[in-house]
Write a structure and sequence with these properties.
There is one protein chain. The protein has 299 residues and is of the alpha/beta class. Helix content is 48%, strand content 13%. The structure holds nicotinamide-adenine-dinucleotide. The site of nicotinamide-adenine-dinucleotide (NAD) has 25 residues, from helix 4.
């Protein structure tokens, strides 16, 4: 018999992920607060339901893809209190990006009730969610990781176990802090070259074959017109918004406070993205994060 999944949070990411579970043969009970997202999920073959508690009845897995840690804790513990109604045999996978402390709290409360939980945040944006090519970073026991794998394989191309509950979030935060750092560094280097008379395409080609090569330069060039099909060549339409990068950099700062780690480059990147968000009279938070290039460019 086909396994049943309750999917909570059918937004930009969750919508595509739930559709891929249907394609892989899972029966999906879908819930979101927004009617339009429920309708899209129904069109993709999910069964829309009118509340989260109904969604989890009799399921084998619960997958959530929600905006932030406060909402995740509310859905599982303090508000909808799903942990009180999820079947004991089910496995819970929270794929939202939240603080490791949020995941550890939900994981501990789940364990108290005899339930199994993993955090499984993702790398890859809306296109990867729709294409089923996300990378998952999982925090949980080895046994729960093995149970989670068939569900995650249906939505992603790469699935890693980072460690125990919360470790998936730590991996996600480290990855995105590094992404912010190499994107700002790439924008800075390209601007220095342009200001000194170089064509950004020529400079990019040189650095791609030199020691400055990195993912931002290779896949996501921040200068308009250098690369086709990236946000920079489409008026910085996201993609991955400045506001979401700021959320992840704030989570990195929180984690560094707890562990007393020095993150001077991550802190500088967060300040640069904040400065960019508030620069030029309009809120840049909704633009793609590669628009950090505009902070460096001369009028
Ligand atoms: P989104 O805002 O598009 O989707 C979130 C959905 O959750 C919305 O449809 C909203 O209605 C729903 N929701 C909110 N509260 C709810 C509740 N109590 N019950 C049920 N549904 C509820 O956000 P998104 O872009 O899909 O991001 C989701 C998560 O994925 C975030 O944690 C984000 O940081 C992470 N993420 C996003 C991207 C990206 O590129 N968008 C990439 C990687 C990770």
């Amino acid at each position: 018999m086909n396994k049943t999944v309750a999917f909570i949070g059918l937004g930009n990411m969750g919508g595509g992920m739930a559709a891929n579970l249907v394609k892989a043969g899972f029966k999906v009970n879908a819930f979101d607060l927004m009617e339009t997202n429920l309708k899209a999920a129904a069109d993709a073959g999910c069964t829309p339901v009118d509340c989260a508690k109904t969604a989890v009845q009799g399921v084998d897995f619960v997958v959530s893809m929600l905006p932030n840690g406060a909402i995740v804790e509310s859905v599982y513990i303090d508000g909808d209190a799903l942990l009180d109604v999820i079947p004991k045999a089910a496995l819970i996978l929270d794929c939202s990006t939240v603080a490791p402390a949020n995941s550890r709290r939900v994981g501990a409360e789940a364990e108290k009730r005899g339930l199994s939980f993993v955090d499984a945040p993702v790398s890859g944006g809306v296109a990867a969610a729709a294409a089923g090519t996300l990378a998952f970073m999982v925090g949980g026991t080895e046994a729960n990781f093995e149970r989670a794998k068939p569900v995650l394989d249906a939505m992603g191309a790469n699935v890693f176990r980072a460690g125990d509950v919360g470790a998936g979030q730590v991996a996600k935060i480290c990855n995105n802090m590094l992404l912010a750092i190499h994107m700002t560094g790439t924008a800075e280097a390209l601007q220095l070259g342009m200001d000194n008379g170089l064509d950004p395409k020529v400079l990019s080609d040189i650095m791609l074959k030199s020691s400055g090569c990195n993912w931002s330069l290779e896949k996501y060039n921040p200068v308009p017109g250098v690369m086709d099909g990236v946000p920079a060549s489409n008026d910085y339409q996201p993609g991955f918004m400045v506001d979401l990068m700021l959320k992840d950099l704030s989570l990195a700062m929180e984690a560094s406070v707890g562990s007393k780690s020095s993150i001077p480059m991550g802190t500088a990147a967060r300040n640069l993205f904040n400065l960019h968000k508030n620069s030029g009279g309009e809120d840049k938070g909704l633009k793609d994060f590669s628009s950090i290039q505009q902070l460096y460019s001369k009028p």
